Amino acid sequence: MEVVMLLFTTATATCQTTTLNSTHLVGTKKVQQVLARPGVLERFFPDQPQVVEQIRATFAGLYTLDMGPEGDQTVAMALANPDKFVLKPQREGGGNNYFGEDIVRVLQEVKGDERRAAYILMDRIRPRIEQKILLKKGLPLKLTSICYEIGVYGAYVRHGQEMVLSEVAGHTLRSKSAEYDDAGLTRGITTFDNPLII
Question: Does residue 158 sit in helix, strand or coil?
Fold first, then answer.
């Protein structure tokens, strides 16, 4: 038996998928990249073009770095304008992504061999900057330029062609100092927030 579960989040403007059976669990950047390709979401939402359009509208551009002409084109695009993109490895959590000149450095190292397929390239999202006081134990209060990342989670579970579950599953709101490109709770850069949902 195979059960397919999709977890959608606006936090990264991408879609994560997990296929569950007794031996298989997938939830990687490469799967997000595949889900963004034309025709893939339609498999999960047949005869629902408006739903597919709404989901796809939340996606940022995702580009393959697999070996071959398409991956070569992605490398050239990133090297020509690295500030427009984020280079992401197959890891979750903060502190693993590359920005700007670090993209150039990493791609120069791996552009000619299969190691580059361990990454994807994504359009960089430029969030709105706000002023806020971040509360941290032992540090004085000061006004800081921050940006937010909200994650609104939805769950979709299918058994064969039968939809078992499709609903909103919760949310998170995180704030981080705008001076950092990459952030994470474990690095002490990001804090959890409490949104007022209206």
Answer: strand
**pTM, rounded to two decimals:** 0.66
Query: pLDDT digit string (tens) for 162-184?
Result: 888 888 888 888 888 887 777 66
Residues whose CB falls within 8 Å of the CB of residue 69, separated by 6 or more in sequence, listed in order: none
3-state secondary structure of 26: coil
Q: What phi and psi values does residue 69 have, to the nearest 5 degrees?
A: -60, -40
Q: pLDDT tens digit string along 16-39? A: 333 333 223 334 677 777 888 888
Cβ 6 vs Cβ 21: under 8 Å:
no
Residue in the block written with tokens 């709101």: 173
C-alpha–C-alpha distance, residues 65 and 78, integer Å = 10
Which residues lie below 8 Å from residue 70, measured CB to CB, with a gap of 6+? 64
